[in-house]
Amino acid sequence: MIDYSPEHTTSEILRAHAEKAEAADRPAPESMNALRDDGIFALRTPKEHGGTWADAESMARCFTELGRACPSMAWIAGTCVTAKNMAANCFRDPSVRESLFADPDALFCGSGVPGAQGKRVSEGVRVSGRWRNVSGCEDAAWAGLSLMVEGTLSFAVIPVADLTVERTWHMAGMRATGSHSLVAQDVLVPAEYVAPAAGFTVADVTLYAITVLGAVVGAARGALDATEAMFASDRKPFMTAYSRMGESSGARQWLAEATHLVNRAERTMLTVARAVDTADLSAAERPRLQMDLADAGRDCRAAVERMLDLHGASGFNTSNVLQRHWRDLSVGSRHPHLNPYLAVESFGATLVDRL
């Protein structure tokens, strides 16, 4: 497994350019190059086309460490996995796959929301529509996009160069993902690059949720790094006789609580990832897995709130990395894949159905 510890070169690059990327509302070129050079964009490229087709646990660990340095970059890496997985599932023609995966390190972006309509013509499929919140779209080579083709839910892979990017991503967190809108205006797509959408297995859907959660857990780990650095410094609790934070039993308890919550979230994520890798998951198991993943997201939020309490108002200073991890986590953990009330609703319905 590749080393993505805080001292690793890629982590250093992501950390060094995170603020620049956030200000630009898109990834920093240096960070994108580092991920590409490290093979991150090939994690879900099929092995026969030069990729690694990594398992869920490996990817969860990777995205966590990337997110520890820059949650937005971990998010983009995760959406690339999702888009490539969908493309690999939908397109089986060898010539199409050879074209799509000719560069195993190419960045894919995409959207599973059918934001466009397609009409079949003699030359292929003419596509018009708009997809919102497409992470990494300004830097991607291919876009995997859901659409309706004459009443059928379909999936198309289109060169991003054939589409228009509208810079609509103006968020408090995950700003560096550059999750802008893609627009197709009567774009002609060859018929072989449009296919009926393959049904999602429980393993697929759970993997997609893990790609989201990995960035969230990473953000919590990055916040914990900042909090531990504060404890190691000469910072002391204001208006007390303590000379350092660690002298306060209350502060030590809150640090322990925050650390426990982050550790528990990561353990939960890795347990679910191992289930994806080793078990033949049934539809009946999905609500339980949804609950586990949603709980992990909530643990991360609770942990960072405790860390902010420890820092006090200084944690919100724009020069403090903690506030960026907090904002990124706050946005990322509210992705539909981690929605806690829908997870409870689904799990409750499953329990009642068994009675």
Automatic annotation (TrEMBL):
Keywords: Oxidoreductase. Residues 14-79 form the Acyl-CoA dehydrogenase/oxidase N-terminal domain. One of its GO terms (molecular function) is oxidoreductase activity, acting on paired donors, with incorporation or reduction of molecular oxygen, reduced flavin or flavoprotein as one donor, and incorporation of one atom of oxygen. It comes from the Bacteria. InterPro entries: Acyl-CoA_dehydrogenase (IPR050741), Acyl-CoA_DH_C (IPR013107), Acyl-CoA_Oxase/DH_mid-dom_sf (IPR046373), AcylCo_DH-like_C (IPR036250), AcylCoA_DH/ox_N (IPR013786), AcylCoA_DH/ox_N_sf (IPR037069), AcylCoA_DH/oxidase_NM_dom_sf (IPR009100). Residues 214-339 form the Acyl-CoA dehydrogenase C-terminal domain. Gene3D superfamilies: Acyl-CoA dehydrogenase/oxidase, N-terminal domain (1.10.540.10), Butyryl-CoA Dehydrogenase, subunit A, domain 2 (2.40.110.10), Butyryl-CoA Dehydrogenase, subunit A, domain 3 (1.20.140.10). GO terms for biological process: fatty acid beta-oxidation using acyl-CoA dehydrogenase. One of its GO terms (cellular component) is cytoplasm. Belongs to the HpaH/HsaA monooxygenase family. This is Acyl-CoA dehydrogenase. It comes from Nonomuraea aridisoli. The lineage of its organism: Bacteria, Bacillati, Actinomycetota, Actinomycetes, Streptosporangiales.
